[in-house]
Amino acid sequence: MGLIVKRAQPPADAVRESVRTALRAAPPSDADMERRVSELTAQAQAQAKLELDPRRLLIAFALFAVLLALAILIDSQEWVKDPAPYIGLASTALGAVLGFVTGEASGSAGS
């Protein structure tokens, strides 16, 4: 399950239809079985849609905004000589948020 983006379960009737099709078909040869499994799996997964969890996305961007505001405050009040590490922390948080969103949406962030 993704942190920000998740793939919804395919509709039950789509899965039911894939199972019905598989049961009606003649048993495939061993060489043909993997191809058929891939086809039926792709058909069922095509029915699943990506869902964005807006609450979690808002929390992630709020965390970035807090870190950015803190970095700006540290710089404007001159609490430290070099605020670059704090600005780097904020940009790393933004990169992590965007990385999670795009990685999960493309499916490369796990399942």
Summary of the model, kept short:
With 111 residues, the chain is mainly α. It contains 4 helices and 2 strands; from the N terminus they run βααβαα. Helix 1 runs antiparallel to helix 2 (30-46) and helix 3 (54-77) runs antiparallel to helix 4 (84-106).
String of helices and strands: EHHEHH
Strand ordering within the main sheet: 1-2
Our count of helices gives 4
Beta content comes to: 5-15%
CA gyration radius, whole angstroms: 23 Å
Compute the average pLDDT: 78
Summarize the structure in words.
By secondary structure, this protein is mainly α. The protein is 69% helix and 5% strand. It contains four helices and two strands; from the N terminus they run βααβαα. Helix 3 (54-77) packs antiparallel against helix 4 (84-106).
Identify the notable features of this structure and list them briefly:
5% strand, rod-shaped, two-stranded antiparallel sheet, mainly alpha, 111 residues
Helix and strand topology:
Elements: E1 5-7, H1 12-24, H2 30-46, E2 50-52, H3 54-77, H4 84-106
Antiparallel strand pairs: 1-2
Helix pairs in contact: 1-2, 3-4
